Structures are given as structure tokens and as C-alpha cells.
Amino acid sequence: MVDEVLAELKSDYEETLAKFQKELAKIRTGRANVSMLDGVRVEYYGSQTPINQVATLRVPEPRLITIQPWEGTMIPEIEKAIISSDLGLNPSNDGTMIRVPIPALSGERREELVKVAGKTAEDHKIALRNHRRDANDMVKEAEKASEITEDDKHRAFEKINAVTDEYVAKIDARLEKKETEIREV
Description:
By secondary structure, the protein is an alpha+beta fold. It has helices at residues 2-26, 75-84, 107-144, 150-183, and strands at residues 41-44, 47-50, 55-61, 64-69, 92-93, 98-101.
């Protein structure tokens, strides 16, 4: 019973960690990164489609993203989508390719982004604690149903806390790495 609860808990934690990693990738650093454009959608034959499904995205140099649409008619649509997104990017095109220069971040903007990353980390830590609470409740229910002993319950709580601490540390490590990237000039 306890092993099943721990397996489910680890699965939930891995999912939360993956979501956190995805959220962090969207936060802009001073360097170009194609995942910055993940949230940008473009009108493509009547439906909103992610840019990476209508074009090839590349990072040829640290402060530039190039977008090569598969159809030339998509260039104005892609430009319009990037401009209307809240990324603060200004694309330009040469008729066949879109170039998106990534401007350097000001010190103030860097600190704002560090705060955003910290808030994202805290939100995901709260999700971890919610999963921990659910796992603890499952263990308590198992004890009430006489499926496990009181000693087993306490050992399970210790294991659950150890796993939780491990995943909180993983979130902190990824946050620290992202903060370093953001502050890097």
C-alpha cells in the first residue's frame, strides 16, 4: 500500500517538475531561445497554431532567432503574432525569412524576471506540498482501514517527506540555474 502511494507521489512530482521546467523555459533570458516563442500562436487556415508547426526556428547566434516559414504567405501572419505577443520583440523580414533580434535586458527587467521565476518556483512548490498532503491522507486512510500499522504510517510519512524534500531541492536547483542565466549579461 505504502509503495503504491509513493509511486503515485513520485509520478505526480515528476509531472509537476516537468511543468515547472516548461514554465521556466518561457521566461526570457538575455540569450535567444526558440522556446521563448512557444506561447505565440499564428492564424493558419482558420486555426490558432504554434509557430514551430508552421516554420523552422533556429538560433544562429546568441541574440537572434530566425524563422523560416514553410509557406511564404505566412510571413506577415507570423510577424503580426510576434508583435502582438507580450514578449517585446520586433521581428523583421527579408521576404523569405523572419529575423527576431533579442534585445539586451536592462538590470531592472532582469530583476523583474528573477522575481517571476521565483514566483513560478513557489507555485510549483505549493503543488508539491498539495501532492504530499494527498499522499499523507491516503496513508492515514489506510491506517484507519487497518491496512497498515501505526509504525508503518510513521515510516511512510518519513519517506513521503524525504521524497518531497528531494523534489523541492530539484526545483530550487533549477531556479538557481535560471536566475544565473537571467542575470548573465
